[in-house]
């Protein structure tokens, strides 16, 4: 018996559903064309483009050359950006972000900093090709403390420089839960405010927020002590009160899977525990049947309704399931994302109607 197609994800007057290409499969296994088709088939309207997918398409274009032309990798990436924009336009999708521009701020070595600025200039060229209103996402650095500084004045100065180099392309700064010095939304928002550039804003991620304040995947309970409930509530109250929603460029949704504290999913060599967990065991929101357990309902309500945010809401799920060598992976993950978005909208509606935390 053939299953019915998944209904499209809903769009509201306030939020538009999007998905990250990393959520639809590994770049080395699943083509960007398959990912774009899957997103469009399941109601997503926007696409967070991971650079890995663009670079993989550039490699494919180079391999199709009949004779070597001596063109650079960057030139092939420009070609790939044109192709991706055309593919998305044909399917009614908007490229809304190019990411992740990793390990930028706070570099101690001036040579490395100069190299990253040069690379950022290339990304700005890519962004101008990919769309008319997208941004480059810079996640907080998680390099070793011997390689980067935590001096706030320096971090602010680096983000100012990035915004100036990119202008008028926008830059979004995101705090990763495992960031060496910047690992909370409060940290990233302080830096963005101090930098005070018109094209610089913040990205809010439900997984990173909950993972830092509330979760402890190495604990049998999967969480920190009870005080974490109060700490998360207070943090979300501050978020709704302090952040300017006009400076929020995107809200990303993801849950985390409760795993055995001794699981290898938490023990990737050379990676912090939270990062290993994030790369292997994120889930789409409202997937409790798959082990989702973080209080992302509370976080989502604060980021959307509490903050009064309107705009793109993207599913950003890293998972071991995306690395399965199966051509159905993009479609399956896009369908899961569509279901999760509808479930989240239902829960937000209930919470709004009852004026209580229904999560």
From TrEMBL:
- The Xylose isomerase-like TIM barrel domain covers 36-341
InterPro entries in UniProt:
IolE/XylAMocC-like (IPR050312), Xyl_isomerase-like_sf (IPR036237), Xyl_isomerase-like_TIM-brl (IPR013022)
The cross-references to Gene3D superfamilies, in alphabetical order and at most eight, read: Divalent-metal-dependent TIM barrel enzymes
- The entry's protein name is Xylose isomerase-like TIM barrel domain-containing protein
């Amino acid at each position: 018996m053939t299953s019915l197609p998944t209904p499209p994800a809903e769009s509201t007057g306030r939020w538009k559903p999007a998905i990250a290409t990393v959520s639809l499969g590994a770049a080395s296994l699943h083509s960007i064309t398959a990912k774009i088709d899957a997103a469009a088939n399941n109601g997503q309207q926007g696409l967070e483009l991971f650079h890995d997918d663009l670079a993989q398409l550039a490699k494919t274009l180079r391999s199709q050359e009949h004779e070597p032309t001596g063109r650079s990798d960057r030139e092939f990436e420009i070609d790939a950006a044109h192709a991706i924009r055309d593919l998305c336009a044909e399917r009614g999708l908007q490229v809304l972000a190019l990411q992740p521009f990793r390990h930028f701020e706070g570099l101690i070595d001036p040579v490395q900093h100069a190299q990253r600025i040069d690379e950022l200039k290339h990304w700005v060229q890519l962004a101008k090709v990919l769309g008319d209103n997208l941004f480059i996402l810079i996640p907080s650095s998680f390099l070793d403390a011997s390689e980067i500084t935590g001096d706030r004045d320096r971090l602010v100065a680096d983000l100012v420089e990035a915004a100036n180099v990119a202008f008028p392309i926008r830059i979004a700064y995101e705090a990763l839960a495992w960031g060496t010095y910047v690992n909370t939304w409060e940290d990233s928002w302080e830096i963005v405010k101090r930098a005070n550039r018109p094209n610089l804003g913040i990205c809010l991620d439900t997984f990173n927020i909950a993972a830092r304040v509330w979760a402890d995947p190495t604990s049998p309970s999967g969480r920190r002590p009870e005080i974490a409930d109060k700490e998360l509530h207070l943090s979300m109250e501050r978020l709704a009160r302090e952040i300017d929603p006009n400076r929020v460029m995107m809200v990303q949704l993801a849950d985390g899977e409760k795993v055995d504290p001794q699981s290898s999913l938490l023990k990737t060599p050379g990676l912090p525990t939270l990062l290993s967990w994030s790369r292997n065991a994120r889930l789409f929101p409202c997937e409790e049947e798959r082990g989702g357990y973080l209080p992302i309902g509370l976080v989502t309500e604060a980021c959307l309704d509490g903050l009064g945010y309107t705009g793109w809401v993207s599913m950003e799920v890293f998972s071991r399931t995306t690395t399965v060598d199966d051509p159905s992976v993009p479609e399956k993950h896009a369908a899961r994302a569509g279901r999760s978005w509808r479930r989240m909208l239902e829960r937000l509606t209930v919470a709004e109607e009852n004026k209580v935390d229904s999560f």
